[in-house]
Specification:
By secondary structure, this protein is α/β, with parallel strands linked by helices. The chain folds into 2 domains: 114 residues, Aspartate Aminotransferase, domain 1, CATH 3.90.1150.10; 217 residues, Type I PLP-dependent aspartate aminotransferase-like (Major domain) (Aspartate Aminotransferase, domain 2, 3-Layer(aba) Sandwich). The protein is 36% helix and 14% strand. It contains 10 helices and 13 strands. A 7-stranded mixed beta sheet has the order 2-8-7-6-5-3-4, sandwiched between helices. A 4-stranded antiparallel beta sheet has the order 9-10-13-12. Helix 5 links the parallel strand 5 and strand 6. Helix 3 packs across helix 4. The mean pLDDT is 96.
């Protein structure tokens, strides 16, 4: 670190993104990207808008927010457009959390939550998952602190029902509950319909997973108008031009072709089911994932060892060193062909152990 880094940031431990290797013909199943490219209309819209890159984008994101509002049945002032859902998560920490308003989240969840808490000097508590790696909602009832929950959770993929989440929200009326729905389109229930019933609920989503736009960086948040107004105050105080022209155009075009998103999600869910069945036959223990990834471990091979052996075969999955989950690997659901290559490679690895 330089001699200019402030004392308050010197102990900051940054988030570690998944590997983005520059290797040809690699089967990349480590960062939960969609295996399917964006629609032709999405690409065309971005290309057309590229002709106007000499002009600033619309800071209000009005057309995009109207498209969001139409798709999710809310008003345009109940939604905010952000540079990937990571941005709104940070905005929420900045706007609603401080030393007097601490936060809680699971001990095994999206790795950015503790980073954002530390970055914004917000006290936090990590609530342990159950032995089956599920979130116990009773531990969040009436806790009296701001709550951040990924639903489905990451990296487990396990989801809570909207009814259960509503009970958590209702039991904490004076605290913000943020539901991070990055993976909701792969089999979980969205809590967006609850935002008009509860003014303490903020729901976030991303275009990086189900909508094939990880490289464009687009996300959004939906909540009551007052929450969104506060978040926009933070946005205008940091980066009012947070969504570039091409991403904005691509996002609108993607929403106009929502049937393609639905088809891709259906295909990913089917491939997930087939892969889970095959891995189960091989003796893997697997969580009940409602996301576009599988979380699996095998009694006969160490989790990191399996990760490294797959990497040697040109297949990249995500391994975590955290003690409770170090025997697991998170495997993004790719195309059927990619998953066949994965399971074939794992069979070979397991056979080599005998």
């Amino acid at each position: 670190m330089s001699r200019f880094l402030t004392e308050k940031q010197k102990d900051l431990i940054p988030y570690t993104p998944g590997e983005q290797p520059k290797i040809l013909n690699l089967i990349k199943l480590n960062t939960n990207e969609s295996p399917y490219p964006p629609a032709e209309e999405t690409v065309a819209a971005a290309e057309e808008e590229a002709k106007r890159l000499h002009l600033y984008p619309d800071p209000t994101c009005s057309s995009l927010c109207e498209a969001f509002a139409k798709r999710w049945g809310v008003d345009a002032d109940e939604v905010i457009a952000v540079n990937g859902s990571d941005e709104i998560l940070n905005f929420a920490f900045m706007a609603f959390c401080d030393e007097t308003r601490p936060v809680v989240f699971p001990d095994i969840t999206y790795g950015f939550y503790p980073v954002f808490a530390d970055l914004n000097h917000v006290p936090y508590e990590e609530i342990p998952l159950e032995s089956d790696l599920s979130v116990n909602p009773e531990k969040y009832m009436g806790i009296g602190k701001n709550i951040f929950l990924a639903n489905p959770n990451a990296p487990t993929g396990i989801a809570l029902s909207a009814d259960v989440i509503e009970k958590i929200v209702a039991s904490n009326p004076n605290n913000l509950v943020v539901i991070d729905e990055a993976y909701v389109d792969f089999g979980a229930e969205s809590c967006i319909p609850l935002i008009r019933k509860y003014d303490n609920l903020l729901v976030t989503q991303t275009f990086s997973k189900s909508r094939s736009m990880a490289g464009a960086r687009l996300g959004f948040g939906i909540g009551c108008k007052e929450l969104i107004r506060d978040l926009n105050t933070v946005r205008y105080s940091t980066n009012p031009y947070n969504i570039n022209r091409m991403t904005m155009a691509a996002g609108i075009a993607t929403l106009k072709n929502d049937d393609i998103t639905a088809k891709n999600c259906k295909n990913i869910i089917a491939t997930r089911k087939e892969t889970v069945a095959e891995l189960t036959r091989m003796g893997f223990e697997i969580t009940d994932s409602k996301a576009n990834f599988i979380f699996a471990k095998h009694q006969k091979i160490d989790g990191k060892d399996l990760y490294l052996k797959l990497k040697d075969r040109g297949i990249l999955v995500r391994h975590f060193d955290k003690k409770r989950i170090c025997q697991y690997n998170r495997i993004t659901v790719g195309t059927p062909e990619q998953m066949k290559a994965l399971t074939d490679a794992i069979k070979e690895i397991l056979e080599d152990l005998t």
